[in-house]
Design goal:
The protein has a single domain, classed as Na+/H+ antiporter like fold. The protein is globular, with a radius of gyration of 18 Å. It contains 15 helices and no strands. It is 78% helix and 0% strand. The chain starts with a helix and ends in a 5-residue tail after the last helix. The chain is mainly alpha-helical.
Length: 306
């Protein structure tokens, strides 16, 4: 593997943190990306697709009980936590909307990398992320509509179509390309994780730049809400694994899958259907869940207990 992109993957949390700081300092470096956010997310999902094989779907049956539990927790715990935390902290309406959107998104692909770093069950992680992503075109807009329809005008069909083109279609395209042209793309496959990290960094930088004034005006309360959302989600996934008497590896996997969201998708939905302020929780979540995830991965990688 090339040394340069190996370093980017190794220090991806630091890369994201530095981009966030740079966006607050020099927002003009990232605001250009606003109209391209859906395309950037599509590239990320395509990159995930080319790292998978159609045979990976077999793992869904092999781990069907754990997969069902993980997906159920994904789409119940995180939206519920978003509502409870927002109410408890008395967050502004637009920020609460952003919290709910992030909580309703599928699992984040960064969880797969962190499962590898923490010696968790990488195969189960990929299947859980894949399943929650494939369900996202229907489940994510349904949850958002169920929670927010009485407070804001939500277009269920338009949002479902948006998720289809951002998530499902590029993911399927990646699978097809790998299946038919693997020999031609094999040499560049190792670059896709690095490409995804760079795309995620640009998306985060753009949202942070667009929300610079809002973020600097009241970051403490929103930051606290996002940290609680992420850490309680991680704790819920970990507790679920212990209750299900899962192995240490699968317990760690559930923790990452429940606590880490596809916040980039949340940012895109918030920006497209609501306001720039509603994208703020997603932007902060993108930074927070990578930092907490890396810390947990490093902690678990040197421990034998779950």
């Amino acid at each position: 593997m090339n040394k340069e992109h190996n370093l980017i993957e190794k220090y991806f949390a630091l890369v994201i943190l530095l981009v966030a700081v740079l966006a607050l300092w020099l927002p003009r470096c990232f605001v250009w990306a606003k109209p391209h956010i859906p395309l950037l997310l599509g590239i990320i999902m395509f990159g995930m697709g080319v790292t998978l094989k159609f045979s990976d779907f077999i793992a869904v049956w092999r781990h069907r009980g754990m997969v069902l539990a993980g997906v159920a927790l994904q789409y119940t715990v995180m939206p519920a936590l978003a509502v409870l935390i927002s109410s408890a902290l008395g967050l502004p309406k637009e920020v609460m909307i952003g919290m709910v959107i992030v909580g309703s998104c599928p699992g984040g692909t960064a969880s797969n990398v962190l499962c590898y770093l923490s010696r968790a069950d990488v195969a189960l992680s990929v299947v859980l992320t894949l399943c929650s992503t494939l369900l996202a075109p229907v489940v994510t807009p349904f949850i958002i509509y169920l929670i927010l329809s009485q407070k804001v005008d939500v277009s269920f069909v338009a949002m479902m179509q948006s998720i289809f083109w951002i998530v499902f279609f590029p993911l399927l395209a990646g699978l097809v390309v790998r299946h038919f042209f693997f020999n031609r793309i094999a040499k560049v496959l190792s670059w896709f994780p690095t490409l995804s990290i760079l795309m995620i960094a640009v998306v985060i930088g753009c949202v942070m730049a667009l929300n610079r004034a809002t973020l600097l005006a009241f970051p403490a309360l929103v930051l606290l809400a996002v940290i609680l959302h992420n850490t309680l989600g991680l704790a819920a996934g970990y507790a679920a694994g212990r209750l299900l008497k899962a192995s240490p590896e699968r317990t760690r996997t559930l923790a990452f899958e429940i606590g880490m969201q596809n916040s980039g998708l949340g940012v895109s939905l918030a920006t497209q259907f609501f306001t720039a302020a509603a994208a703020l929780p997603g932007a902060i979540f993108s930074v927070v869940h990578n930092l907490t995830g890396v810390l947990m991965a490093k902690w678990w990688s040197v421990r034998k207990a779950p």
